[in-house]
Structure formats: C-alpha cells, structure tokens
Design a protein that fits this description.
Blueprint: H1 2-21, H2 44-52, H3 62-66, H4 81-90, H5 93-99, H6 108-123, H7 127-130
Amino acid sequence: MHGDLVRYASNRLLMQDQYTRHPEIDQEVIAAPVIVAGLPRSGTTHLVNLLAADSRFRSLPLWELLEPVPNPRERAPGKLGARSSRLDQALPDKARDCLGVTTLSADPRYLRCTGKWVGMRLAVPHLAAMHPDAGPHPRRDRA
C-alpha cells in the first residue's frame, strides 16, 4: 500500500511538471474514445484485449497506466550502453519466457510492471486462471 501511495504522489508530481513544461497538451484532441466499463467477471477484460488487438485503436498498456510519465532521472530506453547489452545477452531464456521481456534495456516502467505481475503470480498463483494475459498486457504493448 505504501509503495502504491508513493507511486500515486510521484505520478502526480511528474504529470504536473510535464503539463507545466508543455501547456500545449490542452490542445490535444481525443476523438471518439472507447471506454470499457462493467461489473467484475463480466468479460470486460476480454473485450479490452479484443479491442487492443485492432490496429485502429491505441490501447493503454498497463505499464503506461501505472506510470504515465517517464521519470526524467531514469535513463531513456535503449541508451543504457554496452554494460546493459552484455546483461541482455546473459539473460536466461527461462527469465525471458517468464518475464515476457527480451532485453533489460526496455523502458524501466515496463520492467517494473512486469516485475509486479510476476510477484502477483507468485503470491496468487490462481490469478493467471482469471487473467491469463494480464501483467504488462493489453495488450502486448512493449516499451
């Protein structure tokens, strides 16, 4: 709970900073958004995944929902250098399959989300039966 509260406060500060530096955000128009809402266990997750599979939609991946604005103190994806490349090569296939990541140089927000999902699956193994493609999914959007 403490970690979530810190993340919410951090997100708020990062979003306010982003908005202060880029007031043109107000000019952005989202035409005809599709919002899925429903009762638990009513099929909303399947509907969201079905819509996300359609290339005409831009779905909101979980990792971006949890952390909408990148932390400027973290290195940008793909700029981690040779050390990260060596670590990527050493990443075992089993970890790649379990985590769904092929490189350690992915967006840190994506990696954190993936780690949370792996932890949740360890704590609640039956969760995968209810949400087999959860975690960083829908949505298969990767950093």
